[in-house]
Each structure stands twice: as C-alpha cells, then as structure tokens.
Amino acid sequence: MSGGRSNLTYRVTDAVGVVRALRRPPTGGVLSTAHDMRREWRFVTALASTEVPVPEPLAYCADPAVTGAEFYVMGFVDGLVLADEEAAAALALTARQQASFGLIEVMARLHAVDPVTVGLGDLVREEGYVERQLRRWRRQLHQSGSPDLVLLDRVHDALSTHVPAQRTGIVHGDFRPGNLSFGSDGRVLAVFDWELATVGEPLADLGWLSASWGQPGDDVPPTIEGPSTAPGFPSREQLAEHYAKLSGRDVSELPFYEAFARWRGACIGAGVRARYLAGVMGADGFDADVRTEQEHTQATIALELS
C-alpha cells in the first residue's frame, strides 16, 4: 500500500474475502533498532484494551522464512487517511473540525495510559526521552550514508543544551492525520504506524503534530505534507489549547518540541531518501521523484564546478 516511507504495508485478502493488513520492514537498508516489528506489535497489543483506537492485533511472526523478514498481521480498518490537502476534500467542513479535535482527544487518551499498567513498564528509562532521541537519531543519521550533515549536527548540539524537564507517558512518535483513519463524519477510527512508539515525554507528540500542521500564510513549510492547509481546519494554537484543556498539562515548552520535531524530521527524511536511492522501498512512484531530485542535484553541482 502506497503512502508509507518506512515500513512496508500490504493489504492481504484471504480465500473467503476477509481483508487484513500486514506490516514488515523494507527489503534492505535496515539499521540497528529501526523498523522493529516486534516493537510495533507490542504497542498495538498493549493498547488494544484501552480507549486508544488501534487495529485489531492478530498475529506476529519472527520467522524470516515466511516472508523474508519478521512481520505482523492486524485487522484492516477501512477509513479515510488524511495524508494531504487532496484527501481532506472528502470531508465536509464540519467533519474537518471534528477530525482535528478528535485526533487531539485520542492523543490525550494515549498520554493518559500508564505504560506499566498495560505491560510496557520495561520500556521506562531513567535517562530522559529527549536525550535518548537526540543520541539515537544522530547515530542513525550518520549510519544512513547521507551527505552534508554539518547543519544537522549543529542543531543537535543546540537542542542538547536546552532540554526542558520531562515526564513519562506513551509516545506514538509520528502522531499526525496521515497515520490515522477517519470516518466520513471525522471520527477517529484507528491509529496506525507504531514503529517509533516508546515511553517518554508526551509533549513530543504534540510538538511533532504542530510542526507538521501547516497553515495558510506560514513562512516555514511543515515537516510533512498534511490536510491542514485546506479550509475548515483549526490552527496549531487551537489544537495546543484543546490538548492542554483535556490533558491538564503545561504546554509552555511546546516551542522546544516543535524545534526538536523539525530536526528529527530532517533526520528521518535523510534516511528515507537513502533507502529509496538504494532501491529497497519498492516502486511506488515516490522512488522516481527521489531519483529525479538526485539527478537534478548532481547536475547542479556539476554545473557549479564547471
């Protein structure tokens, strides 16, 4: 299924027509600790009995002989994924507002879940979430083979010196409309893509959502394409206010987490680009865009050097 830039997702239909979804890692370029199917499976199964809507977990397989890699199978949630402004056209204006505030309500429910109670207590760490994330993504970035990392390293160092005090909760890691399924009325049906989930500072999820929530007139583009530039979607400020009201959390440190989200997004983008150039993500149309961009960059450099 197109749209994912990290793990591969397949729609699987059995002999009697029942549809399910299968998730597995890319066919190559898998770095240490990345694309961990068992981790995704743990979070989906842990949250299945909570008020956080997730697909029904069905089976996990660690045997690479079956598909060539570990994988898991879950129920197929047939809804609308708001990956971009075009997808938003399927929702009425009132449903767009419902979808926006609904995803914040689901986020607040997720952050209210005690990780110990749902069996994720072993993921609680003494070291802060942000410190772990900064170290992890910088390491992944340098292992990806991406060029020109000087600026990203400088931003890493600046973030490291301004880390605020942190709390503990379940963090999805990529919470945005493109990873949720919505009904035609804007109701949230399920949250997908738990690859980056961990236990840490919940405001990281709000910072990631805010950094990806583009608005008309923005001077800085969002970290990733989304639906929020279409009419009918509330502002980033309204989403943050709604989260603060529902969760009771202080969101004054949100600007730091937005900055952290942008840096992490750049690290992820560099890794995605490297995987597509290595040919391990399949031909879904995006690979051609990446290769065209690569050829343009190389031609520009050659012209400048000539």
Secondary-structure blueprint of this entry?
Blueprint: E1 8-13, E2 19-24, H1 37-47, E3 57-61, H2 64-67, E4 71-75, H3 85-88, H4 93-112, H5 129-143, H6 150-160, E5 169-171, E6 180-182, E7 188-191, E8 198-200, H7 203-212, H8 236-247, H9 254-277, H10 286-305
Helix pairs in contact: 4-8, 5-6, 5-9, 6-9, 7-9
Q: What structural class do helix, strand and pairing data support?
A: alpha+beta
What value does the average pLDDT take?
88
Distance between the termini: 43 Å
Helix content: 40-55%
- Could you give a short account of the major beta sheet? 4 strands, antiparallel
Q: Helix segment count?
A: 10
Overall geometric form = globular
Poorly predicted regions: 294-306
One letter per element, helices H and strands E, the order comes to EEHEHEHHHHEEEEHHHH
* Proportion of strand residues: 5-15%
- Radius of gyration (CA) equals 19 Å
Q: Please state how the strands of the largest beta sheet are arranged side by side.
A: 1-2-4-3
Q: Could you characterize the architecture of this molecule?
A:
This protein has ten helices and eight strands. The protein has 306 residues and is α+β, with helices and mostly antiparallel strands. The protein has a four-stranded antiparallel β-sheet with strand order 1-2-4-3. The chain has a two-stranded antiparallel ribbon with strand order 5-8. It has a two-stranded antiparallel sheet with strand order 6-7. A hairpin with a 5-residue loop joins strand 1 (8-13) and strand 2. Helix 4 packs across helix 8, helix 5 packs parallel to helix 9 (254-277) and helix 7 packs across helix 9. The longest helix has 24 residues, at 254-277.
